[in-house]
Amino acid sequence: MAEASSGRGTRARRPLSPHIQIYKWPPAMLMSILHRITGGALYVGTILLALWLISAATGPENFDYVSSWFATIPGKLILFGYTWALIHHMLGGLRHFLWDTGRGYDLKLIDQLSWGTLVASIAITLLIWIGVGFGGA
Amino acid sequence: MSMRTPLKKVRYLGSAKEGADHFWKQRVTAVANVFLGIFLVWLIVSLVGADHASVKARLANPLIALAILALVISGTIHMRMGMQTIIEDYVHGEGAKIVLLMLNTFFAAFIALTCVYAVLKLSFGA
């Protein structure tokens, strides 16, 4: 990569942009990162959907075996995380649809939409899991 | 002195001019995924704790099967494009990038085919 230079043999001292460790994260930046992370999680998590469908298609033994893994505490934690990733990525997508229309770029509204999607995704995920009694004891 | 025209020299080296197509397909599948994702949550919530026979019967229902097929197709297209963007953003070595882009396609196709096979077997199989 070409470095900026004064052209007289010494490198010009230009200001550096702040790095993420000392940068005050705007909420939209956090949401952007979370959107990518949840997208990646949903990508890998499709293995769970494929496992579930294949086990159902290949008989009760396989289905009960896969279901028993989903019913363990780590299994439920993964499924809970997957539910949140799905809901959060979905709400983030809806926010992007709004921005696609050229609306919703007021700085205060951007912050509100960003925190709003995070709060709403957690709330909806909890409601879903309360609805199913956290998958039983 | 090269006899090649300037156009010949740069062709295939710059923007592929497929960005708008990528953007649009990404958005179309995103819209579909909103509805199909809500469907998936509803389906799984309604099947929590159900035994194999009832899950099998439910998944073999034509409307349910069609919705799962739509979800799988739209979802795997969408996730492949998303992962493609992530790879192109972070992987700059040409060799590694090409290998990862290929693996990305293989993974998406593998998930899509596995799910479609399972749904078809549940619908038509013995």
**CATH architecture label name of chain A:** Up-down Bundle
Largest sheet geometry of chain B? none
DSSP strand tally of chain B: 0
Number of helices, where a helix is a run of at least 4 consecutive DSSP H or I residues of chain B: 5
Helix and strand composition category of chain A: mainly alpha
CATH class of chain B: Mainly Alpha
Shape of chain B: elongated
CATH superfamily of chain B: Fumarate reductase/succinate dehydrogenase, transmembrane subunit
Largest interface, and how many residues on either side? A-B, 32 and 35 residues
What amount of the residues of chain B lies in strands?
under 5%
Reading off the top of the CATH hierarchy, the class of chain A is best stated as Mainly Alpha
Q: Could you give a short account of the major beta sheet of chain A? A: none
The backbone outline of chain A, from C-alpha atoms, is elongated
Rg of chain B, alpha carbons: 20 Å
Q: How many domains is the backbone of chain B divided into?
A: 1
Walk me through this protein's architecture.
The complex is a heterodimer of chains A (137) and B (126). By secondary structure, chain A is an all-alpha fold. Chain A has one domain (26-135): Fumarate reductase/succinate dehydrogenase, transmembrane subunit (3 helical TM bundles of succinate and fumarate reductases, Up-down Bundle). Chain A has four helices and no strands. In chain A, helix 1 (27-57) packs across helix 3, helix 1 (27-57) runs parallel beside helix 4 (107-131) and helix 3 runs antiparallel to helix 4. The radius of gyration of chain A is 22 Å and the shape is elongated. With 126 residues, chain B is mostly helical. Helix content of chain B is 81%, strand content 0%. Chain B has five helices and no strands. Chain B is elongated. Classes of the chains: A mainly alpha (137), B mainly alpha (126). Chain A binds chain B through residues 36, 39-40, 42-43, 46-47, 49-50, 53-54, 56-60, 63-64, 83, 86-87, 90, 93-94, 96-97, 100, 128, 131-132, 135-136, and chain B through 27, 30-31, 33-34, 37-38, 40-41, 45, 48-49, 51-53, 55-56, 59, 68, 72, 75-76, 79, 82-83, 86, 111, 114-115, 117-119, 121-122, 125.
